[in-house]
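Tokens for chain A. Residues wanted.
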């Protein structure tokens, strides 16, 4: 081949460098920069042999993927998945991305994408693949997941028993921190035995910026997200509603034998018989940080529950409401835990408790919280159910107020802080710095004058709040966070004697 006669053309040829290896008779084309993405990209090539005879020119069309596979409701799965020739379904795009790239993204345009676990068309996530919703149907350059609603729903699956999982999105044990679902409305199937919006079975994926709904009219269990056997799942900035129906168990998040980080979510435990916003079951070291959690409207509801030998629960900077059932709890714990700087309402009715410690002598630290029953007719701040001494219990610098039946309940009903601290001290526990005062919330019941409707309540503190600076100084105590539920800095952040504000909100 006469290499001096070689000429490249087309969108790919003009962006390439050519090198001829006369020994192996191989022509190698190398992009000068990233080749242009899209379907029907052209490569033209013309050349002569050493005698000057023109070789038949080549004009070939290729589809170029640049680490992203595209999906649109008007696409086709026979398409290559480029921006100008997208796939029609998310599973097809995930398969395409995983076949060609170790790490890649799937960009999904607004619209509704029907799936069915019964038919095997649900979303099975892959290692290294991030699936991103919220793109405009008219321009891939525009992404807004709140405005460009991108819905994945299973409205076809039926039947199933209590542990016959029916999920919309599934992560297996091979998924990692680059396995991401972001920007979707996810609706789990209804009318089934067990319904999950998202099921994580091992791995360490990321679930963020989604609206996630468990199934309605389920027989046994409705869950927004279930995490089983995961070490490092991140659940962040989602709105989660378990839904469910009378007679079912409903959980916004169920964290089973896992070590997850659950942060900045808005969670509702649903409308089943037994409801929990965040449930930890045999988990190891899950962190619950800066969430707003409503236990639910079922007969028994809890905002947060840590049960069955959880190794350690860390609960910090959350706004918690136990719910509206007949038996409601802000926090229910029978395992070791750290409960710091939360605003905890037992519930609007149903004999509420801010915190119930159930039959355990485990190490539990309760610092800097605002705890109130939420009912004008009954309820306790802290309830202990074990009859044994509890020397590993620490209760410091909390505001326990608005509890008509008592601030603390055990063998003694303590109606004053002095009585509570004396009684706890007599049982070997540590109790100091606690108060019982109205914390001066900005708008505790909201415009509708209803404590149980969380969206319009404002439990941040007024500038003159009596619990401003009344908590322990977390910086001095070397705690693992420096911000409040809104992301504002806690102050001070040095070792001065001034304390942080109690509750989830800092007043600077």
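Reply:
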């Amino acid at each position: 081949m006469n290499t001096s006669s070689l000429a490249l053309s087309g969108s790919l040829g003009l962006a390439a460098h050519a090198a001829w290896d006369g020994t192996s008779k191989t022509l190698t084309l190398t992009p000068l920069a990233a080749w242009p993405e899209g379907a029907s990209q052209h490569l033209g090539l013309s050349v002569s042999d050493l005698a000057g005879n023109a070789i038949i020119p080549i004009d070939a069309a290729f589809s170029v993927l640049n680490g992203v596979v595209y999906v649109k409701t008007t696409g086709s799965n026979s398409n290559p998945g480029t921006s100008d020739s997208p796939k029609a379904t998310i599973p097809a795009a995930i398969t395409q991305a995983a076949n060609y790239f170790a790490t890649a993204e799937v960009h999904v345009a607004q619209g509704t994408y029907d799936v069915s676990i019964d038919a095997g068309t649900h979303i099975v996530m892959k290692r290294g693949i991030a699936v991103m919703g919220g793109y405009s149907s008219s321009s891939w350059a525009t992404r807004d997941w709140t405005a460009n609603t991108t819905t994945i729903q299973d409205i076809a699956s039926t039947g199933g028993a209590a542990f016959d999982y029916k999920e919309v999105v599934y992560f297996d044990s091979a998924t990692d921190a680059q396995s991401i679902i972001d920007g979707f409305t996810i609706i789990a199937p209804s009318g089934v035995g067990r319904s999950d919006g998202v099921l994580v079975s091992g791995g360490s994926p990321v679930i963020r910026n989604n609206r996630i709904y468990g199934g309605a009219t389920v027989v046994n269990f409705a869950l927004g997200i279930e995490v089983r056997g995961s070490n490092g799942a991140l659940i962040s900035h989602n709105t989660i509603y378990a839904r469910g129906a009378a007679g079912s168990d409903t959980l916004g998040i169920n964290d089973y034998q896992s070590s997850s980080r659950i942060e900045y979510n808005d969670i509702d435990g649903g409308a089943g018989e037994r409801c929990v916003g965040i449930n930890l079951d045999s988990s190891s070291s899950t962190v619950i940080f800066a969430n707003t959690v409503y236990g639910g409207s079922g007969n028994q509801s809890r905002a947060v529950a840590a049960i069955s030998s959880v190794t350690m629960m860390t609960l910090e900077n959350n706004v918690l409401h136990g719910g509206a059932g007949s038996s409601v709890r802000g926090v229910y714990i029978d395992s070791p835990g750290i409960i710091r700087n939360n605003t905890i309402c037992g519930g609007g009715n149903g004999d509420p408790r801010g915190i119930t410690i159930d039959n355990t002598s485990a190490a539990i630290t309760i610092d800097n919280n605002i705890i109130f029953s939420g009912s004008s007719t009954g309820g306790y701040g802290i309830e202990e159910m074990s009859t044994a001494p509890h020397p590993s219990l620490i209760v410091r610098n909390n505001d326990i107020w608005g509890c008509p039946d008592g601030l603390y309940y055990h063998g003694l009903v303590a109606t004053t802080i002095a009585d509570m601290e004396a009684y706890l001290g007599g049982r070997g526990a540590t109790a100091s710095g606690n108060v019982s005062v109205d914390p001066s919330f900005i708008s505790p019941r909201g415009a509708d004058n209803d404590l149980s409707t969380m969206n319009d309540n404002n439990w941040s503190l007024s500038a003159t709040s009596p619990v401003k600076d009344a908590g322990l100084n977390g910086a001095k105590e070397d705690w693992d966070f420096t911000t409040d539920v809104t992301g504002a800095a806690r102050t001070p952040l040095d070792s001065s004697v001034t304390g942080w504000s109690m509750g989830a909100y800092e007043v600077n």
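The mean pLDDT is 93. The CA atoms of residues 223 and 283 lie 17 Å apart.
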